[in-house]
Amino acid sequence: MPAIVLVGAQWGDEGKGKATDLMGSDVHYVVKFNGGNNAGHTIVIDGEKYALHLLPSGILTPTCTPVIGNGVVIDLEVLFREIDDLEARGVSTEKLVVSANAHVITPYNRTLDKVGERFLGSRKIGTTGRGIGPTYADKMSRNGIRVQDLFDPHILEQKVEAALAFKNQVLTKIYNRRAISVQEVMDELLPYAERLAPMVTDTTLLLEQALNEGRNVLLEAGQATLLDVDHGTYPYVTSSSATAGGACTGSGIPPTRVSRVIAVLKAYTTRVGEGPFPTELFDDDGEFLRKTGAEYGTTTGRPRRCGWMDVVIGRYATRINGVTDFVVTKLDVLTGLEKVPICVAYDVDGVRHDEMPVNQSDFHHAKPIYEEMDGWWEDITGVRTFEDLPANAQAYILRVEELIGARVSAIGVGPGRDAIIARHPLLD
C-alpha cells in the first residue's frame, strides 16, 4: 500500500488535523516527520478541544498508531506532559512509537535559542525560543543528541561534554550568560529514559513492514511549505523540511512508496512570526479574520497575522510538493463578507508576477493583485455536500481550484471534527 503525504500549503496553522480526521479509521499509521513543539494542531472532537504539539494527530484515533519519526526534534518534558494531559482526559497513548534516531532538545539548545534571538534585536527571525533551530543545527554539525543516546549514559555524557566545550564559550563570552554543566544536562535527560524506552524502535523498519502489509501510512508535516528551510521565505523559516520531500527523509520511507500528496490551504492566509506577507491586512478586515477564525497560535498563543487568500503561494505549494489534492479549511470564517478578494498575482515595481518571485527582495516588495468574488451570508457550518453550499461559496472554491492547479477534494466548514465536505476521496 502506498504512503500519503499531508503538508501545509501556506505558513502553517491551516488545519492539517482536519484532513487526518477525514481519513479517520482508514489510516493505520500517522507519522510526524519534522519539526518539534514549535507548532501544533488544534482538533475539536464532540465539542472537546485538543491542542497537540509534539504528538501526531493520529493519537486521537484509537485504531491508529502514531509515530514520531527520525526527522523530529523532541523536548522530552513537553512530550510527557502532553502524554499525561491526554491520558488524564481518557485518551490512550499506549500505541505511540518514537524513532531511536530522532534528536533531543537539550537545556543548552533552549538557552541558545532565546538569547540568540534577543541578540538579533530588530533582525530577529521570530522563533518560539524552544530550542528547535539550535537542535537542528547540532544535528547538521554532527554534534546532536539522539533518543538512542539516552540508553547509554556513558555515550550521552561524552556527547554532552563535547557539545558544551564549545557552547559554554558562546554563552559566557558572547552572550554573557552562565555556563551550563554536563551534570545539569544529564539530570534533565536521563530520568526520562526508563519511561521512553518501551516506545522506541526502528521506525523505518516498522513503516516498511506496515506498507508491505497493505496498511495506510500518513506522513504528517509540522509547519508548512513557506516555512520549509529550503523552499520557504528564507530566512524567516523553520529549521526543518516541511514539504513532501522532507516526508521521505524525516520518516525513512522512500519516494517510490508515496502515491498522493494532500496539501491543506486555509480559505484565507495567516502567518506567525516575522517575514514578508503580501496579502497581510492591517485594517478591520484583518481583525475580522483574526477574531472570527480564532487566529491565535496553538503553541505560543501569539495573535496570527491575517490576510486574504493568496493563490500565488497556492500554486507554488502545488509545484514544490507535487500536490494531488487540496483541503480548503475555515471557509465558514468568510461568511458575512460582501466581497471576498483572492490574490491572483503580485505587482513588483510595476511588473506583474503570476508565480512566486525567486528573488527574496522582490517578494518583500510584492503588492497583491486582487480578483474579487461575491460573498455569502448563509450559515454553512451544517452543510455536508458541496451542492448545498451557497452559490457564491461554491464559486469561490471553484475559482481557487482553477487558480492553484489541483483539485479541492475537501472543504472545512466549521471547527468540529465532522464539519467537513468531502468532494473526492483522499484515500484510493
Written account of the structure:
- With 428 residues, the protein is an alpha/beta fold.
- Helix content is 32%, strand content 21%.
- It is built from 13 helices and 20 strands.
- It has helices at 16-23, 76-88, 107-120, 132-140, 153-174, 182-189, 193-196, 203-212, 244-251, 284-292, 311-321, 360-364, 391-404; strands at residues 3-8, 29-32, 41-45, 48-52, 65-68, 73-74, 97-99, 103-104, 200-201, 217-220, 258-266, 269-271, 305-307, 309-310, 325-329, 339-348, 351-353, 367-374, 407-412, 420-422.
- The strands form five sheets. A ten-stranded mixed β-sheet has the order 9-7-5-2-10-1-11-15-19-20, sandwiched between helices. Strands 14, 16, 17 and 18 form a four-stranded mixed β-sheet that branches.
Brief overview:
This protein has 428 residues and is of the alpha/beta class. The protein contains 13 helices and 20 strands.
State the main characteristics.
428 residues; alpha/beta; 10-stranded mixed beta sheet; 4-stranded mixed beta sheet; 13 helices
What layout of secondary structure does this protein have?
Layout: E1 3-8, H1 16-23, E2 29-32, E3 41-45, E4 48-52, E5 65-68, E6 73-74, H2 76-88, E7 97-99, E8 103-104, H3 107-120, H4 132-140, H5 153-174, H6 182-189, H7 193-196, E9 200-201, H8 203-212, E10 217-220, H9 244-251, E11 258-266, E12 269-271, H10 284-292, E13 305-307, E14 309-310, H11 311-321, E15 325-329, E16 339-348, E17 351-353, H12 360-364, E18 367-374, H13 391-404, E19 407-412, E20 420-422
Parallel strand pairs: 1-10, 1-11, 2-5, 2-10, 5-7, 6-8, 7-9, 11-15, 14-16, 15-19
Antiparallel strand pairs: 3-4, 12-13, 16-17, 16-18, 19-20
Helix pairs in contact: 3-4, 5-6
